[in-house]
Amino acid sequence: ALPRDLEGLRVVISAGGTREPLDPVRYLGNRSSGKQGYALARVAAQRGAEVTLVAAHTVDLPDPAGAAVVHVSTADQLSEVVRAESATADVVVMAAAVADFRPASRAEHKIKKSDDGGAPTVELVRNPDILAGLVQARPPGQVVVGFAAETGDAGGDVLHHARAKLKRKGADLLVVNAVGEGKAFEVEDNSGWLLGADGTEVPIPLGAKAQLAAAVWDAVVGLRKTQGV
Ligand code: C5P
């Protein structure tokens, strides 16, 4: 049986990939399956947490048992729900693949092909960094966890970049996944590292996404102990 070491904690987890509409029928999206975020929610509920899962687009996944699920689509919607839910959370995990850019405007009607064989130009604008915003606004004692999908080989560069990202965003923990051909996205297994703002670096061997989820919750429990909350 799993430990009930998250009993009494309210956790908010975002998962899946956002979609940024171009017109009524098209969007910019990404390859996130949502499986890692759903595994985090499932394991947290099994360990006794009160779980809210803010789910963007995923492959067909059942709602995790014991979690309240709020479905969203765009980065803007995800931001709004996560921010509201986080106000009273003990732990927030941003596992969602949030679009960094969105089309500057959304066409009211389907964009048509022109007769001259030309193609439209899509102007993009930046989406706000939700994770960084959560860190700025967090209540005392709240643990904030981010994800980083990095391409490249293990070792040197990936972890160097990830460390810089952790610092830039101000989160307590960063889950670093190596991505690329057949890695992390759309597959059942995951591997990577858990970087702590305190300088810790825990490798996570290739395994089921539930296993990575367990490692994240172990680290959160450890962090709360050292922080004395
Ligand atoms: O900067 P990058 O997109 O690699 O950071 C990934 C982390 O930041 C993830 O935890 C993701 O959920 C979060 N993120 C966010 N808002 C964005 C982009 C990413 O919260 N606009």
From TrEMBL:
<keyword id="KW-0210">Decarboxylase</keyword>
<feature type="binding site">
    <location>
        <position position="169"/>
    </location>
    <ligand>
        <name>CTP</name>
    </ligand>
</feature>
<keyword id="KW-0511">Multifunctional enzyme</keyword>
<keyword id="KW-0456">Lyase</keyword>
<feature type="region of interest" description="Phosphopantothenate--cysteine ligase">
    <location>
        <begin position="11"/>
        <end position="229"/>
    </location>
</feature>
<keyword id="KW-0460">Magnesium</keyword>
<feature type="binding site">
    <location>
        <position position="165"/>
    </location>
    <ligand>
        <name>CTP</name>
    </ligand>
</feature>
<dbReference type="GO" id="GO:0004632">
    <property type="term" value="F:phosphopantothenate--cysteine ligase activity"/>
</dbReference>
<keyword id="KW-0436">Ligase</keyword>
<comment type="pathway">
    <text>Cofactor biosynthesis; coenzyme A biosynthesis; CoA from (R)-pantothenate: step 3/5.</text>
</comment>
<dbReference type="GO" id="GO:0004633">
    <property type="term" value="F:phosphopantothenoylcysteine decarboxylase activity"/>
</dbReference>
<feature type="binding site">
    <location>
        <position position="100"/>
    </location>
    <ligand>
        <name>CTP</name>
    </ligand>
</feature>
<protein>
    <recommendedName>
        <fullName>Coenzyme A biosynthesis bifunctional protein CoaBC</fullName>
        <ecNumber>4.1.1.36</ecNumber>
        <ecNumber>6.3.2.5</ecNumber>
    </recommendedName>
</protein>
<keyword id="KW-0285">Flavoprotein</keyword>
<keyword id="KW-0288">FMN</keyword>
<comment type="pathway">
    <text>Cofactor biosynthesis; coenzyme A biosynthesis; CoA from (R)-pantothenate: step 2/5.</text>
</comment>
<feature type="binding site">
    <location>
        <begin position="128"/>
        <end position="131"/>
    </location>
    <ligand>
        <name>CTP</name>
    </ligand>
</feature>
<feature type="binding site">
    <location>
        <position position="147"/>
    </location>
    <ligand>
        <name>CTP</name>
    </ligand>
</feature>
<feature type="domain" description="DNA/pantothenate metabolism flavoprotein C-terminal">
    <location>
        <begin position="6"/>
        <end position="221"/>
    </location>
</feature>
<comment type="similarity">
    <text>In the C-terminal section; belongs to the PPC synthetase family.</text>
</comment>
<comment type="function">
    <text>Catalyzes two sequential steps in the biosynthesis of coenzyme A. In the first step cysteine is conjugated to 4'-phosphopantothenate to form 4-phosphopantothenoylcysteine. In the second step the latter compound is decarboxylated to form 4'-phosphopantotheine.</text>
</comment>
<feature type="binding site">
    <location>
        <position position="110"/>
    </location>
    <ligand>
        <name>CTP</name>
    </ligand>
</feature>
<keyword id="KW-0479">Metal-binding</keyword>
<comment type="function">
    <text>Catalyzes two steps in the biosynthesis of coenzyme A. In the first step cysteine is conjugated to 4'-phosphopantothenate to form 4-phosphopantothenoylcysteine, in the latter compound is decarboxylated to form 4'-phosphopantotheine.</text>
</comment>
<comment type="similarity">
    <text>In the N-terminal section; belongs to the HFCD (homo-oligomeric flavin containing Cys decarboxylase) superfamily.</text>
</comment>
